Amino acid sequence: MILSEIKDLLISKFGSEVIVGEEAGILQPALLIAPSRIVEVCRELRDNEATYFDYLSCLTGVDYGVEAGKFGVVYNLASIPYQTQLTLKISIEHGRDVENLPSFPSLVEVYKTADWHEREAYDLLGIFFEGHPDLRRILLPDDWEGFPMRKDYQAAEYYKGIKID
Amino acid sequence: MRRDCHAIARNDISIQLEMTQNEAFIKYQQKIAQAATQDMVLNMGPQHPSTHGVLRLELITDGEIVKEAIPHLGYLHRCFEKHAEALTYQQTIPFTDRMDYLASMNNSHAWVMGVERMLGIDQDIPKRIEYIRVLVCELNRIASHLIALGTYGIDIGAFTPFLWCFRDREHIMGMLEWASGSRLLYNYIWIGGLFYDLPVGFEERCAEFVTYFRPKVKELNELLTDNQIFIKRTANVGVLPLDVAINYGCSGPVLRGSGVKWDLRRIDNYSAYPELDFEIPVGKGEMGTVGDCWDRYKVRVDEIAESLKMIEQCVERLQKDLKRTTDFDPRAKMPRKITPKAQDYYMRAEGARGEVGFYFMADGKTEIPFRVKARGPSFNNLSVISELSKGVMIADLIAILGSIDIVLGEVDR
């Protein structure tokens, strides 16, 4: 199934507001999805007989930088029966306050792969996933402060009173 | 295994509550504290030989039965993605080697192909280079599988296969050192080419190795694969149904062990693989159920034979129509400046443990990627452990973990 067909399928199912944009003309085109609808879109793509995107290859949390003021998540889906690939993107504009994290719906109920990948995005980028069953830090220690993969992250000078060289 | 008494930890909760506001972390701590009163909490790792590195599995056990296994990772986190945001595409190749350090060639191959496709030069790579890449990747895959099989034997209690596997792996290490200059972390495959051409006589050495190694695989099968004790320990243990494997994003031998022919070398047809003749081994449930530990083990054994077939074909072509010439320069097609157009690209390739993926975000202005995400196959394969370990014996958990074959360098990146 090519991208335009997938787009038509989603529009006929959920209405046109579910797709907020499209990145075309490059090697791997992507669909930009409204963040609040991502779970139902993925469930439809997974279960629909024409698409069967049953495999979440990769989930990437993105900090688009201080100037853009935007956070996003990229989903790379794959279909094992049809051997096709699809990229979905969601993003919101959000401030960089660590007390008030940008939040997206969690995809764990559709793909279990998202469990650890979302924990990683939370851990490194400070993106919160609503409805995630166990959103703890995964790679860094539980008491780590700050989110290192953010573009404005300043490396800490001390860790528990120990000087970091 | 270290036995942890969580009575102390319970008193610490109030202190740690102040430290973090994370709700999920508090929930987790309460779960452990409660489990410590009725069941036993057992820490398997991080310094435990059968966790294959620094992985800690926190087990909530009821006698010998594992009620729940909570994996803790990150002991080997080396900030790969952060480094990649500060280095050029070429400079990051040694870092990709250090992800899955048992199959470095496969990692850098995936990275390099991704960058080449973004630059649009992937069709210009000379055939000889593609064949050399596949040759060293397959050698490395055998070396990696040999470790997987040998250490799996040790986990189960068989010591000899481990020594045999390491003896044979040493030949491959020596050959790859001859080609690249280092034994484990090669930095051999470069964007648009190779570090050096193969040394003179390498092809002959490969052919010699294949002849030497074929009977050794047979020996290994007689010693371990068909061993009744080994079968008793692995057949019908840790059965991973196909739908669960797919939903958890398992790939490589773990996914194929559950019975689906999903090999990116055939599906994506990258590099020289479309011209090579090889089969995709899948789990058939010969000794028990499809998707049990024995099936995953057997897929690796069969893959070694397939890799040997591929090496033979590569060597043959490298000695005939793609023969070395004096004017052949493996760096001739290397771009001077690597600045891909502004785009996002997800590159996936079949590593020794499954789908090695790199998600690139290029801004089109600099030689440094805006964002890179590495998708390690072990990271996804390991996430299924809490699902597989519900209600198994502690000794079986060791068998399950070994059959998943994780490399912590790639889990933690």
Features:
heterodimer, A: 165 residues, alpha/beta, Beta Polymerase, domain 2, two-stranded parallel sheet, 3 helices, 9 strands, 21% helix, B: 413 residues, alpha+beta, 2 domains, 4-stranded antiparallel beta sheet, 17 helices, disordered N terminus
How does this model look, in words?
- The complex is a heterodimer of chains A (165) and B (413).
- By secondary structure, chain A is of the alpha/beta class.
- Chain A has three helices and nine strands.
- Chain A has helices spanning 3-14, 38-47, 113-125; strands spanning 19-23, 30-33, 55-63, 70-79, 84-93, 103-105, 128-130, 158-159, 162-163.
- Chain A has a five-stranded mixed beta sheet with strand order 1-2-5-4-3. A two-stranded parallel ribbon of chain A has the order 6-7. In chain A, strands 8-9 form a two-stranded antiparallel ribbon.
- Chain A is elongated, with a radius of gyration of 17 Å.
- The mean pLDDT of chain A is 88.
- By secondary structure, chain B is an alpha+beta fold.
- Chain B has two domains: 2-72, no CATH class; 80-412, Cytochrome-c3 Hydrogenase, chain B (Orthogonal Bundle).
- Chain B has helices at 7-19, 23-38, 80-84, 93-97, 104-119, 127-156, 160-180, 202-225, 228-234, 242-247, 253-257, 264-267, 293-319, 377-382, 385-388, 394-404, 408-412, and strands at residues 2-3, 40-44, 56-62, 65-72, 189-190, 193-194, 343-350, 355-362, 371-375.
- In chain B, the strands form three sheets. Chain B has a four-stranded antiparallel beta sheet.
- In chain B, strand 8 and strand 9 (371-375) form a beta hairpin.
- In chain B, helix 5 packs antiparallel against helix 6 (127-156), helix 6 packs antiparallel against helix 13 and helix 7 runs antiparallel to helix 8 (202-225).
- Chain B is globular and about 70 Å long.
- Classes of the chains: A alpha/beta (165), B alpha+beta (413).
- The A-B interface holds A 23, 26-28, 30, 54-58, 60, 62-63, 74, 76, 78, 80, 83, 85, 87, 111-113, 115-116, 124, 132, 134-143, 148-149 and B 16, 19-20, 22-25, 27-28, 73-74, 77, 79, 81-82, 85, 117-118, 244, 246-249, 260, 262, 267, 341, 343-346, 348, 355, 357, 359, 361, 371, 373, 375, 379-380, 383-384, 387, 412-413.
